[in-house]
Specification:
- The structure is a homodimer.
- Chain A is an alpha/beta fold.
- The first copy, chain A, has a domain of about 240 residues: Type I PLP-dependent aspartate aminotransferase-like (Major domain) (Aspartate Aminotransferase, domain 2).
- In chain A, about 40% of the residues lie in helices and about 10% in strands.
- Chain A contains 18 helices and 14 strands.
- A 7-stranded mixed sheet of chain A has the order 2-8-7-6-5-3-4, with helices on both faces. In chain A, strands 10-14-13 form a 3-stranded antiparallel sheet.
- In chain A, helix 4 runs antiparallel to helix 14 and helix 7 packs parallel to helix 14.
- The longest helix of chain A has 27 residues.
- Chains A and B meet through helix 1, helix 2, helix 4, helix 5 and helix 8 of A and helix 1, helix 2, helix 4, helix 5 and helix 8 of B.
- Chains A, B: Pathway: Amino-acid degradation; L-alanine degradation via transaminase pathway; pyruvate from L-alanine: step 1/1; Photosynthesis; C4 acid pathway.
- Chains A, B: Belongs to the class-I pyridoxal-phosphate-dependent aminotransferase family. Alanine aminotransferase subfamily.
- Chains A, B: Its EC number is 2.6.1.2.
- Chains A, B: Pfam families: Aminotran_1_2.
- Chains A, B: This is alanine transaminase.
Chain lengths: ~525, ~525
């Protein structure tokens, strides 16, 4: 198996395209233009009207950026959906099943009642004192809303907050982190953000100066990372997860790729780890995490820990441990390791994607650099207050004894146990197919099966100028209405093909998905049998 | 008067600092790193532990970026506020009066009831069917919430939406634009964003390839623009507003600066116009807008129209006209001019800064470029749904006959007429001071008075290594608790000094502000009289 082989063909092609396009222009001009020389008269306006922009003249970092989760297959799905609404009988399926994106509530998952009660009350605090409100909302939701309002200066939920987020909410989040980890957390280390994505961009913006700066990223990876590195003009230094050992992360591979990058003059600045994994679903063992921390410490790398799936664990023998907890348990403090942990309200059992809440906990950076991060956060003023409130709620949900505790727990457990069942059902179904091998989803929201495609299918894909995995996914969509994302959007060992499928469709849909997928796959393999 | 003189001293100093720092490193490396050569063994881990980051090694575009609205004076204000809480008698004032930022609800402005009712109901739709809800919420708010929920696929307010925002809400916004302008608007041209700032960043990211790309910006300007251009590595090409003619925008100045930039090899790509003006408060005349449109058309510039203060007009002889309306009224369509209009829920009479809602209307771009904008929007998935809903509400508020119409109108008119009175009171107070001249705030939320500082004050500022306007603002804050932003944060004609003061403190605070400011100013002028 070509474990340490090159990044996917599509990435290489992209690379070649890019190189030939690279501008070598050198400019002596200044950033803020000096005033016109005194001799410059107010010259005549040119009379030719030119349309300002073409694809050839926009920022090519934008052109290079790719984001498969909402890419070509999803665009095709939207087209099919429109066709289905216009002509219901047109396709051999009656609905589109979106398994492309971790967006639980779009597939019918209901929000956690307590969280929504508090959000509604904070949106319209005028009703807090009204008697009807007692009948409509739980007592602890009302109490929590008051508590939150008292943490907001002037109770102004419509005001820009502190650039890092409302201090009282950061206190709550820090307390939640302390409770989770058993180690202190400082509210001044928390930066509340509109979901985790802007936080990742902020760190990439800080770390990347040029193509000479590299970021170690897992392959396969969540394409936010490759997109953000491309947009900021850096270099993605891939390290490969080992599919054969359940998407294992080996430090020998990290070292090898780091040295290789260094030998090419790349200044590797940070290591991205996604735990639980996306798209791969593995949960790292504690011991493995210690090795990773040690590696970052030794090599002077910032550890960017994507921990947004920390609540999504489906197997009894695995537990989530934050990298901060691990590093503190090794005796490492702020002086030893620079660590950023990303969290989001979009994932977990709550799945509140549309609220765009999240935070990063930034530790081990100097005060001067913290000031720079603060400044960048300030330029965007603050993240949305509902998202901030929700981030505080998920880190401090109802406790035993609270009126909502029982219903809250039932909702939470119902969602998580159902997700575990769905993960298992889909995994089993995939593994029963000819030429498909699928690792367990220990956590997160995805399965990333490997598909061993017949040579004839690969040729057919080449004939229509597409990658074999995209070819497979497009055929699947056209035949069944099931939307999955080709593995090439995440990166994969060249010559191997995968797709990412979420475990999010509601349980009553799973049997239909399994049977449609099975039937399609059989026909596909028949059609292209060598 | 040095109208066409150089950008401010502080910007020039910054420029020099920057130049000496510019790295000239050339890299032949690739963006996505190639695999290690087959001979590379898994080399030994280096044993030295190095802390990864220092200010000298982060992205210097981040270092260069400045954002005065939350800069040094605000940091000092926060410190004073903490001291006041700890020791109430410590300073000669008992509260900090934040006049630094357009954040109305932080100063006691109440949200519009109808908007908050709808938001609360959309956050917790489970109560829509309950009888108590009829008593708590207005009938039209309930109806509107149902209508909005029906526009959201699966009524899932917790799901990621379409990357441009929920289609039904974009329909509503487009209809609102049509009603405002009398010209068609296409929902597919709308990109909903978390406030206007991310939209501005998105366009700068698209337009700026290198320092060779310039963006024409007014001076004085809202520092989001200079910050965004710095972060994306472009060149700010300044054009000066004419203080003597009420911050007039002359196309002769635009042409002059454009030619000067061209002669230095700068590729000027876009023109930023802020109307109503920030920090300057002027409202452009229709005729002037037509000249600007013609200029952009002729020169092939993208017109970036910051129209976030479109509802904030305080003088009877001025009206807001969108640049889209103006260009369409001149017979110019998509083929003639590329135009982006930014709108936000943070401003207007609603002032919902914390909700982070807004949109840009993008017209006159090719489908290929639109696709690139869509892709960048997709990387961040979508803007927050509450902000999206609110953006649809401000573009489609209650109408005559709706239950809420009367109370809504009373709230709206109350806020706008009060803002007009506050603007006038502060303007008059400022103009009554020795050595202060202040143009009228025709619109927006700010006054930008010029202060003629005595030479002795300027020397005193130099002695403590700060700009004279910052010196003045710091003294004002320390003496009175009033927070304003030095003009150098916005840019000003060199040798002139200003500050930006919002008109947002509640009316009962205005007399105290006026008397404290007047007293301080007299003492300051006495102290530094030449």
């Amino acid at each position: 198996m070509q474990k340490y082989a090159r990044v996917t063909a599509s990435l290489i092609t992209d690379l070649l395209r890019r190189r030939s396009r690279q501008s070598s222009r050198l400019l002596s001009s200044t950033h803020i233009l000096d005033h016109p020389s005194s001799s410059s008269s107010s010259s005549l306006m040119s009379s030719s009207s030119t349309h300002p922009l073409s694809v050839a003249t926009i920022n090519d970092k934008v052109l290079k950026c790719e984001y498969a989760v909402r890419g070509e297959i999803v665009t095709l799905a939207q087209k099919l959906q429109e066709e289905l609404s216009a002509k219901p009988g047109l396709h051999p399926f009656d609905e589109i099943l979106y398994c492309n994106i971790g967006n639980p509530q779009s597939l019918g998952q209901q929000p956690i009642t307590f969280f929504r009660e508090v959000l509604a009350l904070c949106d319209h605090p005028a009703i807090l004192d009204r008697s009807e409100t007692q009948g409509l909302f739980s007592t602890d939701a009302i109490a929590r809303a008051w508590q939150i309002l008292d943490q907001i200066p002037g109770r102004a939920t419509g005001a820009y907050s502190h650039s890092q987020g409302i201090k009282g909410l950061r206190d709550t989040i820090a307390a939640g982190i302390e409770e989770r980890d058993g180690y202190p957390a400082d509210p001044n280390d928390i930066f509340l953000t509109d979901g985790a994505s802007p936080a990742v961009h902020m760190m990439m913006q800080l770390l990347i100066r040029s193509e000479g700066d590299g970021i170690l990223c897992p392959i396969p990876q969540y394409p936010l990372y490759s997109a953000s590195i491309a947009l900021h003009g850096g270099t993605l230094v891939p390290y490969y997860l080992d599919e054969a050992t359940g998407w294992g992360l080996e430090t020998s591979e990290l070292k090898k790729q780091l040295e290789a990058a260094k030998s090419k003059g790349i200044n590797v600045r940070a290591l991205v780890v996604i735990n639980p994994g996306n798209p791969t679903g593995q949960v790292l063992a504690e011991d493995n995490q210690r090795q990773i921390v040690e590696f970052c410490k030794q090599e002077g790398l910032v550890l960017l820990a994507d921990e947004v799936y920390q609540e999504n664990i489906y197997v009894p023998d695995k537990k989530f441990h934050s990298f901060k907890k691990i590093s503190r348990s090794m005796g490492y403090g702020n002086e030893d390791i620079a660590l950023v942990s990303f969290q989001s309200v979009s994932k977990g059992y709550y799945g509140e994607c549309g609220k765009r809440g999240g935070y990063m906990e930034v530790t081990g950076f100097s005060p001067e650099i913290r000031e720079q991060i603060y400044k960048v956060a300030s330029v965007n003023l603050c993240s949305n207050i509902s998202g901030q409130i929700l981030a505080s709620l998920v880190m401090n949900p109802p406790k035993v004894g609270d009126e909502s505790f029982e219903s809250y727990s039932a909702e939470k457990d119902g969602i998580l146990s159902s997700l575990a069942r769905r993960a298992k059902a889909l995994e089993d179904a995939l593994n029963s197919l000819e030429g498909v091998k699928c690792n367990k989803a220990e956590g997160a929201m995805y399965l990333f099966p490997r598909i061993y495609l017949p040579a004839k299918a690969i040729k057919a894909a080449e004939a229509v100028n597409t990658s074999p995995d995209t070819f497979y996914c497009r055929r699947l969509l056209n035949a069944t209405g099931i939307v999955v994302v080709p593995g090439s959007g995440f990166g994969q060992v060249p010559g191997t093909w995968h797709f990412r499928c979420t475990i999010l469709p509601q349980e009553d849909k799973i049997p239909a998905i399994v049977s449609r997928l099975t039937e399609f796959h059989k026909q596909f393999m028949e059609e292209f049998r060598d």
